[in-house]
Amino acid sequence: MSSVTALQQKILEIAPGAKNMFSFLRESEEIPQNNPKLKAHAVKICESAIQLREKGEVVVPGTTLKYLGTVHVKSGVKYPHFEVVKEALLKTIEEAIGEKKWNEEINNAWGEAYDQLVEAIKAEMKNHHDETT
């Protein structure tokens, strides 16, 4: 099982109702192993963590953020949903690298990268809402 699939399964274990929020899961009873949308979603989170470690900040192009904000609003994502994904992400990474290598520094780095990305997405979600009201 890929880490991407493992992440998606963790999300659904924590919040089974989230399935309908993901376009690539709505029509399927199982998580598609090679879905490009699923992989792209996970890659964005991983890239953010790498940027944070290398540059001290997460930098995402404005057009990407605008798109992410719009997609999250249209999918019905609410702020508490991001915490579910964060919990699933951290558990998935811990399982992938193993308990012996997992430590507070790694947990904090991934958590911070995720939080920075989420704050930027939330800002775009608010902008999208403001533009449509």
Protein model, in words:
- This protein has 133 residues and is an all-alpha fold.
- It has one domain (3-132): Orthogonal Bundle (Globin-like).
- It has six helices and no strands.
- Helix 3 (36-55) crosses helix 6 and helix 4 crosses helix 6.
- GO terms for molecular function: heme binding; metal ion binding; oxygen binding.
- Residues 1-126 form the Globin domain.
What are its keywords?
133 residues, 6 helices, mainly alpha, globular
Secondary structure elements and their pairing?
Blueprint: H1 3-14, H2 23-26, H3 36-55, H4 62-74, H5 79-97, H6 104-132
Helix pairs in contact: 1-5, 3-6, 4-6, 5-6
Large-scale geometry: globular
What's the main sheet like? Answer: none
Distance between the termini: 43 Å
Poorly predicted spans = none
User: What is the radius of gyration?
Assistant: 15 Å
Mean of all residue-level pLDDT scores = 82
CATH class type = Mainly Alpha
What is the string of helix and strand elements? HHHHHH
Strand fraction: under 5%
Determine the number of helices (DSSP H or I, runs of at least 4 residues): 6
- Tell me which CATH architecture applies here: Orthogonal Bundle
Helix-strand category: mainly alpha
> What is the CATH fold-level name?
Globin-like
Helix content range: over 70%
CATH superfamily: Globins
How many runs of DSSP E, i.e. beta strands? 0
Count of the domains: 1
